[in-house]
């Protein structure tokens, strides 16, 4: 695309070029790549300084691979942050469907788990309102089929969807 041609990839050994209305970004990880993309969309010339020959080879390549919607932030009342995370997740699912996909996650609740089933159900219900994706309780008869799940002292299992990606490929695409 024309926007991509405005990004100059600068290796550690190369000299910087002065460009009119330019922005220099240090680091070619996911954050640097996203800032570069946003700056180019605003009409700026961008130079990315990176120690590696390709983007996404350092910290970004060692991430959890999740594009999560911020479920854990609900407990501390950070609703705006949850909404922002889910908006970004929706954007990435739509913009990069070959790299970002929804996957199911299970939350097992044991007798010694600090959060009771009702509290997790309430949190997931709120999360499903924000995310527009439903969650459900996994029936007790299905517990043995869940890979590696210990069923002793298990009280409940909930399943919801979050997103996963290949972080190196996503960083490079962005």
Summarize the SSE layout with pairings.
Elements: E1 7-11, E2 22-26, H1 30-41, E3 45-50, E4 66-67, H2 79-95, E5 100-110, H3 117-131, E6 136-137, E7 154-165, H4 167-173
Parallel strand pairs: 1-3, 2-3
Antiparallel strand pairs: 4-7, 5-7, 6-7
Helix pairs in contact: 1-4
What would you say this structure looks like, in words?
The chain has helices spanning 30-41, 79-95, 117-131, 167-173; strands spanning 7-11, 22-26, 45-50, 66-67, 100-110, 136-137, 154-165. The chain has 174 residues and is an alpha/beta fold. Strands 4, 5, 6 and 7 form a four-stranded antiparallel sheet that branches. It has a three-stranded parallel sheet with strand order 1-3-2, covered by helices on one side. Helix 1 (30-41) packs parallel to helix 4 (167-173). The protein is elongated, with a radius of gyration of 21 Å. The N and C termini lie close together (12 Å). The relative contact order is 0.17. Residues 1-5 have low confidence and may be disordered.
* Secondary structure tally: strands: 7
Mean pLDDT over all positions = 84
Largest sheet data: 4 strands, antiparallel
Helix content: 25-40%
**Radius of gyration over all CA atoms, rounded:** 21 Å
**Proportion of strand residues:** 15-25%
Total count of helical runs of at least 4 residues: 4
Features of the shown structure:
single chain; 174 residues; alpha/beta; 4-stranded antiparallel sheet; 3-stranded parallel sheet; 7 strands; disordered N terminus
Quick description:
The protein is α/β, with parallel strands linked by helices and 174 residues long. 29% of the residues lie in helices and 25% in strands. The protein contains 4 helices and 7 strands.
